[in-house]
Amino acid sequence: MAIEGMVRHPLVHRLYVDHQGWLNGWLRRQLGCSQKAADLAQDTFVRVLSKDHGLESIREPRAYLHTIAKGLLINHWRRKQIEQAYLDTLALQPEAVMPSPESQALIVETLMQVDVMLTRLPYRVRRAFLLSQLHGLTYAAIAAELDVSERMVKKYMAQAMLHCLLLAEDEP
């Protein structure tokens, strides 16, 4: 069902009627794919529908829609990068250990969640966490890399771990 049939709020309806074509065209130019552009345009209006308050104060509707769509576009590109990195890693594995397509989809979804979690961390905290967890560096080596004390690295790691625990509690 097209989003147009779901729009009951007159301001959202007007926004959709006046700007959906423009938004779809802009996204199509960014993506080079009309189907994905249509999907992201629809997702943009779904986001507008979910806000449904304060719409009266929108002075520049195209800028408003552009901001929402740009965020969705960045998420789309980030997901593509993560999927490609995962597929590149899978290609190096023997076929016998290849996960099913369903498992692959779940793994990519989990990787997306980890990526979101990491991007919410301050830069130095994220860097310390990644140096520790992915590269296996000691706190002393991380301290040298980041040009901070070991005590600061411990604080960074505690902050990262707390962040992980808080996110785990939020999961259903």
TrEMBL record:
Residues 15-81 form the RNA polymerase sigma-70 region domain. GO terms for biological process: DNA-templated transcription initiation. InterPro entries: RNA_pol_sigma-70-like, RNA_pol_sigma-70_dom, RNA_pol_sigma70_r2, RNA_pol_sigma70_r4_t2, RNA_pol_sigma_r2, RNA_pol_sigma_r3/r4-like, WH-like_DNA-bd_sf. Keywords: Sigma factor, Transcription, Transcription regulation. Signal peptide: none annotated. The keyword Transcription applies. Residues 112-164 form the RNA polymerase sigma factor 70 region 4 type domain. It comes from the Bacteria. Pfam families: Sigma70_r2 (PF04542), Sigma70_r4_2 (PF08281). This is RNA polymerase sigma factor FecI. It comes from Stutzerimonas stutzeri (Pseudomonas stutzeri). The lineage of its organism: Bacteria, Pseudomonadati, Pseudomonadota, Gammaproteobacteria, Pseudomonadales.
